[in-house]
Amino acid sequence: MARIQDGGLDNDTLQHLRSRATQLLLKEDWREYVAVCSHIIDAAASVDDRRVLCSALAHRADARARLGDASAGLADCDAAIAVEPAHPGALLSKGALLRGLGRYAAAADCFRAAALASGGGGAAVAEARQLAEQCRRLEAQARSGAVDLSEWVLAGFSGKFPDLAEYVGCVEVRRSPHGGRGVFAVKNVEAGTTLIIAKAVAIGRGVIPDASGSDEKMFVWKDFVGKVLEAAEKCPKTAALIYTLSTGQERQDELAVPDMAMFRKETEDDSLSDGTTAGKTTRTQEAVQMDRILKVLDVTCLTEDAPAADVLGNNGVVNCGVGLWVLPSFINHSCHPNARRTHIGDHAIVHASRDIKAGEEITFPYFDVLVPVSKRREASRAWGFECKCDRCRFEAEDSILGHEILKLENYLLSGGDIGAVVMQLEEKMRKSMVKERQKAFLRASFWSAYSALYDSDKLMKKWGRRIPSEALVAESVADAVGGNECVLRATLRGSRDGNGCGNRLEVEDKVVRIGRATYGKLVKRHAMRDLFRLTLDAANKFNL
Ligand SMILES: C[S@@+](CC[C@H](N)C(=O)[O-])C[C@H]1O[C@@H](n2cnc3c(N)ncnc32)[C@H](O)[C@@H]1O
Which domain of life is it from (predicted)? Predict the structure, then answer.
């Protein structure tokens, strides 16, 4: 029991509690730390020691934030601010909590108030101002989706991941002809436009050598599942978001279309309901539905080692990552996709990889789509669905071409001359007057043959004059599957060789267009050039 003296807590008691709190802080034992802070708060309140009361409330708020209890943390900050409106510690803690909830404008106000309250021009003031500025930038980014990663890219992706805010662009979840729900564009968007920036509910990561067995992967998976369950337990809103996802066991027409407001950043009202009685009521009434979450994770988690992550996000450290990003998990697969995702730290950025019309469904590839239809069918079956996208339908339903495709596939498999395969396919498409869009589909399906041919000086000497240029085929394939590293590399090589690309400015425009379609509008032109160099370097390494 704390001893009390006139005008506040007695010094010995306070000193003892403070040193206990410091020990717990160093051990990061947040639960015990909260208990000690509560002790100080009760004692300080009973003797009306406002100075001690406010700093203990601010410290408890920080610890509660660490424990994922943002609502209780905010309540502590508000209690301190009610006693002392210009308490720098409480204002800083509240700013940090609001920033974590994505309420950047309110967070910036708190940091600004903390700078004013600290007074003078010391390091604390400078830090509070810096935090206010960071929140101002994040607020602007959360509204526009405009991200500039140029500096980070130019620094070789080194250092801390750039700060990102969650963003929901002109997209909406609707019922999809592909199955269940899907994400749709509500406006026309240009290739490269950012559609969604989503923060992961949780990510499991491990540095696993390629040859490692399934035990290590299982370890990463278990760690990931544990983190998702913990996040759902701590925050009812997170649990509610996870429950919008499919368990894979519902009938497609049973799946409800969620309200888009769920995915937008928190409003004042949301945070109040999360922060006070209403939030707590939900938490105690509803235990986390563990089985349901486990089934959801089986269907919806995304691997972080997507092709774009190799260049734009893993900092060369992580080579196995699995995560749950809720809104991107509503995106269906297509072999004629129009979007891609890039991973930066804990955020997934989904951007248009082709121009998209209002009302069109947004899709990305769940597996390699630069392969013939038979291979894609195997992959989609492994996912538990039959892909009926327009590309699959065309390749499966055109009986004359279907026969030809099968012949070419077999010929390729038996080690036949790649140049002859490409020649025959081009001839057949010309004779059958196949439309450009469908030519693009078939070229994408036989991409391995085309690229092996362009890679070989010997084969190019033999067939080069009788087949379309690398740049032309790359542009055509980008129409089928959107921008990606393979077509970008081919476009870069093709444009360097100047074969059939047009004049210098046209060539540069084409390259930048495919670059944006591949990496999104995340970097300025000068940094894009660096990405081009890396893309070509990666190809050279691969070819060695
Ligand atoms: C990540 S979820 C996508 C969202 C899902 N449609 C929903 O309503 O929750 C993946 C599941 O969606 C379905 N799906 C995705 N792409 C599809 C496609 N092209 N054709 C049929 N079903 C698809 C499959 O059931 C797949 O297991």
Answer: Eukaryota
